[in-house]
Automatic annotation (TrEMBL):
It comes from the Bacteria. Transmembrane segments: none annotated. Belongs to the thiolase-like superfamily. FabH family. The lineage of its organism: Bacteria, Bacillati, Actinomycetota, Actinomycetes, Pseudonocardiales. This is Beta-ketoacyl-[acyl-carrier-protein] synthase III. PANTHER family: 3-OXOACYL-[ACYL-CARRIER-PROTEIN] SYNTHASE 3, BETA-KETOACYL-[ACYL-CARRIER-PROTEIN] SYNTHASE III.
Amino acid sequence: MLAGLGGWLPPRIVDNDELSRHLDTSDEWIRTRTGIGQRHVVDPGMSTVDMAVEAGRRALHSAGSRDVDALVLATATPDQICPASAPQVASRLGLGNIAAFDVNAVCSGFVYALATAAGLISAGAACSVLMVGADAFTTLLNPKDRGTVPIFGDGAGAVVLRAGEPDELGAMGPFDLHSDGDLAELLIVPAGGAKQKTSDNPEDHYFSMQGPAVFRHATARMAESSRTVMERAGWTVSDVDRFIGHQANIRILHATAKQLGLPADSLVVNIERTGNTSAASIPLAMVDAVNDGTLQAGDRVLVSAFGAGLTWGATALRWPDITPG
């Protein structure tokens, strides 16, 4: 069950007007197409691990205990290709020699890592797990690409899961997870991995996205996965109090809600202030929604995400009485 919650954003804020000074864009263009007004960006020298440590510390404080048996880090921007970044996060948090590993499902990473953490607990391999979603995604972007630079920001969000009873507030699940590797080219950084370590074309080292196709797949897949989770949970659309989707684009969120038949006021949205923070977006939205009173204990919450891979998934929970750290 969900027992702790925390988030952290880099202090540097880049608003749309600042981007407009070096990109062929404008505040109106960005807001109309994405719903984003600003994003937080890492300064040189700040890393994914740095952000994950800050968010993790807050989630542990929220949980009221530092006693965790494992740490799962959802990220597509590890500090190094090898080793994984999660052990460094655990070490800096002073958690001892616990199990720690990365999960890379990009913008679906939080949902995938939640399922992984819940599975560790269900299998008896852990009684409590710190799960962090953190990405310095702006480090993957071509600074001249107006199709991606306005969309993404950096940040970290974290939760603590602990063993509990299925009828407790905060109990996680059911989960629904999927992928389609045939469409990997829709969102990709071509170079840097084992297949193509380097490239003479600088563009190959930057993230690229086929926006219209991603929009279609994101809305269809998030809605499909959400329906599956509602059916498994025994919920109807009218049972859902809040829908927390990956904060990729305000139009994707509204289109997904419309496909599901959910009212617009059920959406939890903070993208205007954060941009798309990849694996951090859902927990950061949770933090804001608790702090502003949008999320209340007992609310039936539907969570869904879509990302590169392609990957997508959903889960559901009754919201616990929790205060972010």
